[in-house]
Amino acid sequence: LGACGGKSEPATLKVALLPVLDTLPIHVAAQEGFFEAQGVNVEIIPVASAPERDQIIAAGSADGMLNEIVSTLFYNKDEVQVQIVRTARAATRTAPLFRILAAKDSGIANVEDLKGVEIGISDGTVIAYLTDRLLEAEGFTTDEIATISVPKIPDRLALLGSGDMQAAMLPDPASSMALLGGATVVVDDTSHPEYGLSVFSFRKDIIDANPEAIKAFLAAVEQAVEKINANPAQYTALMGEQGLVPGPLLETYQVNPFPTAGVPSQAQWDDAVAWATGKGLLDTDVAYGDSVTAEYLP
């Protein structure tokens, strides 16, 4: 009886999202009705940290997520569980995505002062990867890089602001909030923008079962990116409601353009594999072609 109309119900995709600006296109697509117009339902599942997100994905309670190459590697080290379907946000030569900051009154004046200083990071994520890569690019040896795991972004920001932590790696705009509080930038990914990016990924079983839903999701995200890039100020209220930009920054924060449809390159993937292998976090090669697909992009 349900098939009499010849039209099936739209698929529902549950997406786990951290409270970071990278997710703005999904919130815009939801608010503007773009998902509905493309014929897909999207349920947003807020998560506070990368470990919480990964637990939810592993339990099958979410279908997709905002993540990064490094966590995709760990998902797929034994078998392909998730696939990257789009780059979400990326650093450029003029717009940083991630910054290593020093606390006010820490005495850290330049990158050399970071040698041996514990830097707040989130283990096993792009935060840890970028911390290593940016400091290595500045000539640091492995022994000179010290880190401490503080997975939640607000916790890292608070510890830096109170001076209980001398340095931290933070994504923007959390890093811009830290600057308001007197922190200073030591190094950021504008010097090596190839390292700074986030992605949208979905579980492979979901992609295989609902390829049209993935295409619809990405088509709606593309519409949202176009609207944001044309006039980001129109979404100031939405960014505030979703906690994507801290309140004190809302009226002045400049949203840099989001990347249009694309996926990470083979070189970016290979470098993350090399990092994870070098850290002893990965003991087998994970193929780019199995973990990254541009097939569903509009």
Describe the structure.
It is a single chain. The protein is of the alpha/beta class and 298 residues long. Helices cover 36% and strands 19% of the residues. The chain is built from twelve helices and ten strands. It has helices at 24-31, 34-38, 50-58, 69-75, 126-137, 153-162, 174-180, 204-209, 211-230, 236-241, 266-278, 288-291; strands spanning 11-17, 40-46, 64-67, 82-90, 98-102, 118-121, 146-149, 167-171, 184-188, 197-203. A five-stranded mixed sheet has the order 2-1-3-10-4, sandwiched between helices. Strands 7-6-8-5-9 form a five-stranded mixed sheet, with helices on both faces. It is globular.
Low-confidence stretches: 1-6
Strand count, sense and closure of the main sheet? 5 strands, mixed
Helix content: 25-40%
Percentage beta strand: 15-25%
Computed Rg = 19 Å
Structural class based on helices, strands and sheet pairing = alpha/beta
Give the ordered list of helices and strands.
EHHEHEHEEEHEHEHEEHHHHH
Tally the helices. Answer: 12
- Quote the average pLDDT: 93
Strand segment tally: 10
The global form is globular
Q: CA-to-CA gap between the ends?
A: 34 Å
Strand numbers in spatial order across the main sheet = 2-1-3-10-4
Q: What is the topological layout?
A:
Layout: E1 11-17, H1 24-31, H2 34-38, E2 40-46, H3 50-58, E3 64-67, H4 69-75, E4 82-90, E5 98-102, E6 118-121, H5 126-137, E7 146-149, H6 153-162, E8 167-171, H7 174-180, E9 184-188, E10 197-203, H8 204-209, H9 211-230, H10 236-241, H11 266-278, H12 288-291
Parallel strand pairs: 1-2, 1-3, 6-7, 6-8
Antiparallel strand pairs: 3-10, 4-10, 5-8, 5-9
